[in-house]
Amino acid sequence: MQVCEALIGKPEQIAAAIGVADKVPFAWRHPAKGRAAGDITSAIHMRLLLAHSARHGLGLTPDHLIWGAREEDIAAILADRAAGKVAAQ
Fold first, then answer.
1. Disulfide-capable partner of 28 in 1, 32, 71, 80 (CB 3.0 to 4.6 Å)?
2. Mean pLDDT, the chain cut into blocks of 10 residues (89 residues total)
């Protein structure tokens, strides 16, 4: 979830990007039965996040959704975006 917030935006923006209720991404910040805090709840949501990122060149990858990302990696993606480079997908 932290990577999504860094690359896509606030939970409300994430919700709008994938067509779910505004509050849905907030729940991903907290652990629940069967998943850790920060884990996206379903493969459908992950695919929607990846499709949104690909459409907009945001740099989110499947590895980010599964393993997370180091702060340095996120900073590099954001720097590339600021420089007008399309993020690698």
1. 1
2. 96 97 94 92 96 95 96 96 73
